């Protein structure tokens, strides 16, 4: 990330300021919010041709302002998800980018960078210790989070297709499963689905809901009934393998950081939680 020094005097997302007329000479200078460039985990590689982010490696954001904070006043989970989309729409300098189309990993990188521009890199969150399970407060340094290489599928011998999907082999059922990357729109729809289930007091089914969304075909078959019966019959071992490989190949931000438990002195890596005070820090 680097600060953009060249935009002073330019209106964010707009035209250059009009040439000042003599009678306006006494007016105060226009305030300009600084901007910076955020590296996209996908490096634009996973967007189809014709998409505004196709092969785009970095994207410019405006630093968060007090006005942007107003958007974040909501507390309900779903409303929080929508508020974050609205916030990102506000801070992106290029208005042609549709937030709904952003790949989840790229969106995470933008959320992280925006948070750092608004509240700095220090982030105190409650962590459940992997060893003693106590809930302890820990201060993370968000500047330590880094984006993953975009071609990790090569390390894992996973085929990337021309449609930007991955082919993952599951051993128990001995089948090839084609999976796709999720977008911000998928994420919001999954939140809406779990919200509907919660209201109707239906059991949670987060894992299978996610599989339903990422699986494009099974053994080349794209029929949704066929895919559904595969999901219903999928052994837990295959499901775990699929999800673990998926997480390891999808371009994203690596949120793992060293953690030391204040209760039992356990030391190890934990994932920085997107907790309640990520955008809503206790002050
Ligand atoms: Zn502990």
Explain what this protein looks like in three dimensions.
- Helix 2 packs antiparallel against helix 5 (184-199).
- Helices cover 32% and strands 20% of the residues.
- The chain contains 8 helices and 13 strands.
- 23% of the residues are buried.
- Strands 7-8-9-10 form a 4-stranded antiparallel β-sheet. The chain has a 3-stranded antiparallel β-sheet with strand order 1-2-3. A two-stranded antiparallel ribbon has the order 4-5.
- The protein starts with a strand and ends in a 12-residue tail after the last strand.
- By secondary structure, it is an alpha+beta fold.
- It binds zinc ion.
- Residues 129, 131-132, 134, 261, 263-264, 266 line the site of zinc ion.
Strand order of the largest sheet: 7-8-9-10
Strand coverage percent? 15-25%
- Number of β-strand runs: 13
What does the overall shape look like?
A: globular
The biggest beta sheet reads: 4 strands, antiparallel
Secondary structure tally, helices: 8
- The Cα radius of gyration reads 22 Å
Summing up helix and strand content along with how strands pair, one would put the structural category as alpha+beta
| Helix content percent band | 25-40%
State the distance separating the first and last CA atoms.
Answer: 26 Å
String of helices and strands: EEEHHHEEEHEEEHHEHHEEE
Extract low-pLDDT stretches: 4-14
Overall mean pLDDT stands at 87
Hetero groups in this structure are: zinc ion
